[in-house]
């Protein structure tokens, strides 16, 4: 068991005993452009310095460019005794590798023998670390689950990953996984979740709670598009924000992690947004707040297919 928490109050305990901050950082689309590289790295460092020491990335994101950005951002941190410095050179905090919780994902097409071992090595090299804290199967593909699970367990035995999980698995996928030898070692299912997309509350989330699988909520700020517009312009969310003297994105993040077993991984390319997101950790929504949000954005009372965008 390890405790990765720095300053955040809301933590999630995984089935293996690891305690991680409920608010982490996503990296999709980060690292794609040289012109925004330094600002994005600074945003990630600001997040880490504010306690968002869990970082989610994937081999798919920019073909390894997001992983390399994370490696650049944490350069000097991801070694024992390394110093975390802000872009202006001030010393923000001293962090050891074991105080960071680094998550990456293998593409389904690489999730079997022998490709997963090469993928994992490349991910470690991109990130500049010796091991991952969590390695996720990005989504279910053609490789049999039993093969992927056996490979994940081998990677643990080799010391290259500490734990593994899945992403974009619906209830029937989780049931299949549970029938595979070793499948019950899955720590996390990373799926889309925010107030405008609550389908998982019908059966997947209860199943995960019954089986000790933590939820890692992706697109916790609804990423983009009309749904995001509806959330960001919602009078109900604005009212809750007014009550707590915070912003609407902060209310959304506080809502995402309200269950105590949910990790949310907002992505930002801007230090000011990252700091705003980290500060959502201080918010405790009341029953009245939750009821108001549920009236505007109710959970469905029937099964809906897993949302992925
Ligand atoms: N497993 C999967 O299949 C899967 C799929 C999607 C995502 N993910 C993971 O989940 C992470 C989060 O999802 P996401 O990146 O799709 O979307 P998201 O975190 O819901 O939203 C990101 C957008 O929100 C903006 N933003 C962030 N903080 C803000 C704030 N305080 N105020 C206003 N705008 C803010 C960002 O813009 P700025 O850069 O301008 O701040 C960006 O445009 C990803 O980065 C990735 O790591 C996983």
Automatic annotation (TrEMBL):
Cross-referenced InterPro entries: AKR (IPR020471), NAD(P)_OxRdtase_dom_sf (IPR036812), NADP_OxRdtase_dom (IPR023210)
Domain (NADP-dependent oxidoreductase): residue spans on this chain: 23-294
Coiled-coil annotated spans: none
The protein's name: Aldo/keto reductase
UniProt cross-references to Pfam families, sorted A to Z: Aldo_ket_red
């Amino acid at each position: 068991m390890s405790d990765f928490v720095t300053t955040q109050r809301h933590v999630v305990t995984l089935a293996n005993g690891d305690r991680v901050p409920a608010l982490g950082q996503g990296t999709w689309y980060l690292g794609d452009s040289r012109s925004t590289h330094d600002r994005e790295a600074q945003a990630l460092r600001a997040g880490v310095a504010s306690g968002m020491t869990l970082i989610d990335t994937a081999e798919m994101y920019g073909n390894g460019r997001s992983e390399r950005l994370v490696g650049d951002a944490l350069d000097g941190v991801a070694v024992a005794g390394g110093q975390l410095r802000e872009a202006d050179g001030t010393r923000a905090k001293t962090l050891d590798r074991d105080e960071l919780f680094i998550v990456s994902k293998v593409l389904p097409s690489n999730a079997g023998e022998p490709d997963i071992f090469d993928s994992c090595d490349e991910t470690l090299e991109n990130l500049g670390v010796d091991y991952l804290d969590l390695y996720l199967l990005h989504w279910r593909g053609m490789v049999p689950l039993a093969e992927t699970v056996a490979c994940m367990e081998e990677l643990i035995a080799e010391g290259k990953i500490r734990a593994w999980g899945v992403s974009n698995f619906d209830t029937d996928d989780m049931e299949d996984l549970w029938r595979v030898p070793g499948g019950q070692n899955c720590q996390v299912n990373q799926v889309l979740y925010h107030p405008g997309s609550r389908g998982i509350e019908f059966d997947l989330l209860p199943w995960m709670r019954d089986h000790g699988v933590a939820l890692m909520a992706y697109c916790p700020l609804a990423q983009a598009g009309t749904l995001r517009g509806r959330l960001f312009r919602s009078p109900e969310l604005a009212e809750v924000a007014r009550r707590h003297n915070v912003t609407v994105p902060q209310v959304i993040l506080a809502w995402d992690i309200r269950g105590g077993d949910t990790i949310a991984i907002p992505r930002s390319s801007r230090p000011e947004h990252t700091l705003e997101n980290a500060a959502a950790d201080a918010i405790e929504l009341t029953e009245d707040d939750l009821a108001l949000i549920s009236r505007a954005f109710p959970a469905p009372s029937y099964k809906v297919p897993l949302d992925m965008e």
